[in-house]
Amino acid sequence: MFDRPLLLAPREDVVGYVGRLLGRIALLAVTCASVVAVALIFIFIIREAVPFFTLPGASALVTSTHWYPEAEPADFGGLALVAGSLYVTAAALLVAAPIGVLMAVFLSDIIGFRLRQLVKPIIELLAAIPSVAYGFFAVEVLGPWMQTNLGLSTGNNALNASLILSVMAIPTIVSVSEDALSALGRDLREGSYALGATRAETIVKVLIPAGRSGIAAGVILGTMRAIGETMVVWMASGNASQIPSPWWDITQSIRTMTATIAGDMGETVQGSPHYHALFAVGLMLLAFTFVLNLASEHFLARAKPSARGGGR
Amino acid sequence: MTSRLTIAAWVAIGAILMTVGGASNAADVATAGAGAAKLQIQGSTTVGPIADAFAEVFGAKYPKVGITVSKTGSGDGAAALVDGRCDIATMSRFMKAKEFKKAVGKDIMPVAHVVAMDGVCVIVHPSNPVSALTREQVRKIYMGEITNWSQLGGADMAIVPISRDTSSGTYETFHKLVMSKKKMAANVEYVNANPQAQSRVAKTAGAVGYVGLGFIGGVKALKIDGVTPSRKTIASGVYPVSRPLFMFTKGYPKLGSIVHEFVTFHLKERGQEIVEAKGFVPVTEY
User: Fold this and answer.
1) What residues does B121 pair with on adjacent strands?
2) Which of A87, A117, A170, A299 could disulfide-pair with A217, CB 3.0 to 4.6 Å?
3) SS3 assignment, position A157
4) Which chain A residues touch B72 with a CB distance below 8 Å?
5) Taking CB atoms and an 8 Å limit, are B203 and A40 in contact across chains?
């Protein structure tokens, strides 16, 4: 049965030790590669953004809405871009968060097991559709539809981009929230029923509060999906660098940070002020997503103990 | 999250390419000239399609020569020619005096070769009754001073001005020849390719946009200052928004070299066909 001798020869011992060491080093290197990649991205973006902040008028980036990067003299007012990103993200969340959470509740507590096995993969399939395909839909179908049926002069606007983004954020929100709700355990549900609560009361007063950390994490991950999305907003939002007036009119065209970077970067002369300005915008975007990422980590870490039954 | 990863990956690749690009400069300078094993073309995205199609023909004819075409903008093309990063710079505008001085300072005499003419057409939805505008009217539309078609004798309908992205060659031409370098209003929408501008205008009743002559199918191209954009008016320069497209070389290329053959290819029948197929107007009359 045991082909190997129990006692190794010294040579075999050394070979085994070296092999184990090499294996550990190789695995460590592979793991480090992704960490190093993240660090390099930060360094690269900061390095390319720093020259911008030494330019006169760099403060316009957060104080002015005039984005004329190729004019002479150039204006790098990024306020409208930041506003644009916030507009589409907030509007997308207003739609996606309630729908996503309701879908998660439905999947975890209401629908039967077999139907759930069928529906969940279909929802997750939404995340697998390439964003450029969503963009085509936005430009070719949704935009013209808005023009003919809502009487808008332009169909490529904040509303169009937000609706598409909400569809793209839903799978993330559903997936994470549903995991959080499913992990809550039988005891919590049965305890609630035993106290005489109906299913509706159990869901609204017990399950959603108990799973709130996981749900919050799901919504934040969905937010990151929306704020970082590039192709769809570039195609659907119209890219007019303005803050809508009146401020609530999301049927006007707006321009986001991501779309500006993607749209302008292709033909910008390397090392020009415009080039560095785009990296400065990228740095702002990175700061946004970094904060959101920390927040989602925080909520996910909190979700774990409570998932075992109410933070005991 | 996928998109964040993609951006991250591209940034990483970009970082690597920049390092590699920096290292290979010296080698390129040495091989530029007759019998070079490499032919590097860089510059305008407008001239890019022509250079691409030429490169395809040359790639089949000279399988041993590595031909690369990169489209990084006219300004970058000029800089690349001066830095020795390319053999031919494609440009949708003439070299600026500043760029010329920089080249001469490095003992490089840039020589311009006009390979085609490009006309920027102002387009509207086919249902729009307006069919002629002056450059001043178009400028006022894009500056936000004229906001309704009724001000131009059309229907009572808001104007939706659509522009190309600010770093494109088409924008540069429009900016100079129509806008007189005035800034566009904040409500102007931006798209990043000719076909996209064409498709937006074709689908939006109140839209106005501008594209190359090859992209006016399904939309209405307006008369500008009374001149209809056509092959003839653009080639002769009568149409006010037309411009020559250039290839720049370091000095006049040695006769018989591949660089020489490349920058004169538009004079051959095959070259003319390519120029036309890409939506531009050949400089030659036949």
Assistant:
1) B211
2) A299
3) coil
4) 266-267, 269-270
5) no
